[in-house]
Amino acid sequence: AKTATGTCAVFYQQDMEKQTRRRYLLDTDMRKALTQNDFFMVAQPQVDDNGHIIGAELLIRWNHSELGNIAPMEFIGIAEKTGFIIPLGEWIFEQACLCIKSLQALSLTKPITLAINLSAKQFYQADLIERITAIINKHQITVCNIELELTESAMLEDVDLAVAKITALKKIGFEVSIDDFGTGYSSLSYLKHLPVDKIKIDRSFVTLIDKRDDSRAIVEATMLIARTFNLDLIAEGVETEAEVNTLKALGCKAFQGYFYYKPISINDFFLLVTEQYTL
Ligand code: C2E
Ligand code: CA
Ligand code: CA
Ligand code: CA
């Protein structure tokens, strides 16, 4: 019999098959894309409370020859599952090092921080420190004003191991920030053990800051946490002037979001900071 639920089940199954096929296709193509240079990095500027650039987050992009732009949320997720994130993450880190080297060569009048996203798998790989050290040495990078972003949920997967890894990374000279703060299993007890430098307030709370009291309360609580633990703080996904004003009123001093800048090419980012910060 053709019940409504039966039809749903068929559609659901077709949907699942379509998804499985797409995942398989993207997995195969990702491997080719890495050798064909179809990935590239962009930079999203971060600003202080005067709107002046203080840094940028580096974000990966994939322009698929047939499917066009694939969202990193989609392909990074697949790469995490298949393990391809390890070579991809290494490529990302190397690209980031090249950016950092070019940035350092600009001799700007103000220090500009570049942030790199580390995936959970990459962070927990046994030889992370050796691999990172090898790339730094290969390109003769001075590890200064380089921030590594790790999601809150990644850090909480294994707090003891995370503490050891973060400590080792900081010893090399990296700064470490907690990405997507507030979306994990936020518990204050773990925070005091994590030797991190910065918290990034997740966009989901910023978006609702003027609409929902609970989001505003989470932002306020996060700022209090940052002050208590002496951590830097940046608000992510700031899209409107109203959000900026509320965040500023609450004491926020660093911002990243479309209201200021969308992700731009590395070249445009360099032009922007050169314009602002050369004598
Ligand atoms: P994320 O690390 O939280 O990065 C911030 C995301 O928010 C970026 O999306 C950025 O373009 C977007 N964004 C920034 N400001 C706004 C805003 O005002 N409004 C809205 N709606 N969005 C804003 P993107 O580039 O699509 O990246 C999505 C996620 O994919 C990232 O979230 C990160 O988890 C992952 N990802 C991106 N690049 C990399 C990478 O190089 N390595 C790793 N491991 N993950 C990456
Ligand atoms: Ca991030
Ligand atoms: Ca984030
Ligand atoms: Ca600090």
TrEMBL record:
Residues 23-277 form the EAL domain. This is Bifunctional diguanylate cyclase/phosphodiesterase. It comes from Shewanella polaris. The chain holds residues 337 to 615 of 616 of the full protein.
